[in-house]
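Exercise 3.2. Students should predict the tertiary structure of the chain below and write it as structure tokens, then compare their answer with the key that follows.

Predict this chain's 3D structure.
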Amino acid sequence: MNSIVGKNLNPLTDFGLKKLFGSEPNKDLLIDFLNQILPEKHKIETLTYAQNEHLGVSEIDRKAIFDLYCIGETGEKFIVEIQKAKQNYFKNRSVFYSTFPIQEYRCK
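Answer key:
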């Protein structure tokens, strides 16, 4: 006899979020989800699934991991990172993360 075991997926984990929203076919669902929780002034028009891992120039440099590059309805560009755990030095990390799109722009 086969029994069906229910499975739950937590969208507030990295695994759960990527499983639910981390592919092109589900992009509209992700935009709608994020627009429900973001402030009105930061509504997302489009988003790009960014390369998640950015290594520093040398082995001793830090690395940054973030999820999405977004373009808002007014044309501003921003990064969305979803985390559940408290992060020490969040402001410093945010500044560090923002350097990667700048570096990519300079290299083009």
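Discussion points: The chain has one domain: 14-107. The helical segments are 14-21, 27-37, 90-107.
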